[in-house]
């Protein structure tokens, strides 16, 4: 047992040893650095620390070995002011004290108001901050480069900015971002993106990185299609363009298909690129010019520049300068236009022929104009000889004299001469008849575009006496209309509907469209948007009941595989089955009057009502003429007959008589109108009990007056209409 003289028990000695060891460890750590000044104030130095004897007395006051309680010992501390300050339990707290023995929390004793306070003694705090990702920074930077390029179009600036940006390992993401941003913009930006990729290839971006960029694009095609509905088609064209520009190797198409998931948009895009673009004849030219051409010039602008350089050449005679100008155009796929215009100019200016022949020879020998482009230019002139003869009567003989010269000088392939005479055979009488027919119908079509007189055109065609060549007329009609304004396109569609009723069979029209689609690629060389225009003509023919949807399948089946004409038929089918297709297609070129079918029907009914209520025959005929829809006059006949039955007013027959006498409504339109009424007699009988008797009397009167075809039978079936259902 411990005595009051200061002896410690074994338990107390162990407690003291543990406390001292802990204190020494903390003191050693504190000695490694100067103590905080705020903790060593003069006032605190004047106070004595807690002495060992005090500590011992604390423990001494606790229980003894016998387990009895020791008397409570009160610890008192006297301050410098003489006041007695009671010390808290275990020496903690109190004025002028250092706190508990093991209380070493420095933060609690830092006083920011202390004159000796040093902020450097504050404990460190970890502050969270965002770590920037180099790839994210790169992506943000290239967006501004691309936006600026789309604004100013300067390839050199974009290449320099990308080079200065560094981080070349991220260039595949530049390719992906450039194409994906262009996909959601106009054709101008798409073309600019392709041009920039071609400029950066190998110089700034390695071939492997461009391939990797396109792989990233194809892998994200499903996500792109959410915002860009036709993403697969647009991406397919970018892939095809990259292959044509030698930015991607042709083997890329095969290789990438193995790594893309089945049924993915990316795989679909690659397959479209392979089958629709890269496998088509003349695919390089078609792909290059899909978005306007690599020179950012439209086809019309290029043609204008070609015409200007040829005129300057004829004036100066500088062959080298002319070749330099042709080279600077940068449209090697369009050099056939140079050949064509040069030959036409030689026909117009006989004195210029030697210069023109010398220029073409020089361009061929330099390799500036390829053999295929040269032959294509000659072919195009040959095909347009019928039109040229209207302005240059001797065009055919002049052209035939140029061909042997070109072949003998070695800059035109001899196979051209064989092809033009069908392997050397003398043209037959049928060939001469076809050429004569083409010359005649071109004149007839031009007159129609000026006069808008359908009956006169029909009479002119009948006078030619060549119904077996009707399909050639259709091809000429639509080809000439495509190269003109919407007015002529609308007139061609209206004429086609009238011809189908009057003299053309469905087979004639199908054959004509097949001929058009077979030559669509050649037509596209002159008319940039030929494929879309042909699709609209096809769709319009179906809407006007000239063709039925099944005829489109027949036309597609007669076309060569993988030709652009098949894609045109597919496009026409999509137009037909789209929402509100009838109204949209009828108005695609202004719709004649710009009305929908329902609007036209309303106007017909109103003019007939006005006439029935006391109108003048001549005024009613003029209103029908003002409708401008001769292919729809059978609707006038139908509504006039129905109104005559309902109103019991036979004045309508006088109107029909006048329309027939003036040639306003043809016999075929009249017959078709009667046939449509006959088909609906069962429904009419519900409202008009004597409808059948009335109709038979009207038909008999029309037959006696010669309004309708003699084959029309008001009771049974007739030659012009299907049996009533």
Summarize, please:
The chain has 725 residues and is mainly α.
What is the topology?
Elements: H1 10-31, H2 42-45, H3 52-60, E1 76-78, E2 84-86, H4 134-152, H5 155-165, H6 171-183, H7 187-200, H8 207-219, H9 221-227, H10 231-244, H11 251-257, H12 265-277, H13 283-288, H14 299-316, H15 319-329, H16 335-348, H17 353-365, H18 371-383, H19 385-391, H20 395-408, H21 415-420, H22 429-451, H23 454-464, H24 470-482, H25 486-502, H26 506-518, H27 520-526, H28 530-543, H29 549-557, H30 564-576, H31 581-586, H32 597-612, H33 617-627, H34 633-647, H35 651-662, H36 667-679, H37 681-687, H38 691-705
Antiparallel strand pairs: 1-2
Helix pairs in contact: 4-5, 4-6, 6-7, 6-8, 10-12, 14-15, 14-16, 16-17, 16-18, 19-22, 22-23, 22-24, 24-25, 24-26, 26-29, 28-30, 29-30, 32-33, 32-34, 33-35, 34-35, 34-36
Please explain how this structure is put together:
The chain has 725 residues and is an all-alpha fold. The chain has four domains: 134-289, Serine Threonine Protein Phosphatase 5, Tetratricopeptide repeat (Alpha Horseshoe), CATH 1.25.40; 299-422, Serine Threonine Protein Phosphatase 5, Tetratricopeptide repeat; 430-586, Alpha Horseshoe (Serine Threonine Protein Phosphatase 5, Tetratricopeptide repeat), CATH 1.25.40; 597-705, Serine Threonine Protein Phosphatase 5, Tetratricopeptide repeat (Alpha Horseshoe), CATH 1.25.40. Helices cover 64% and strands 1% of the residues. A two-stranded antiparallel sheet has the order 1-2. Helix 28 (530-543) crosses helix 30, helix 29 packs antiparallel against helix 30 (564-576) and helix 32 (597-612) packs across helix 34. Residues 1-5, 36-76, 421-428, 592-596 and 717-725 have low confidence and may be disordered.
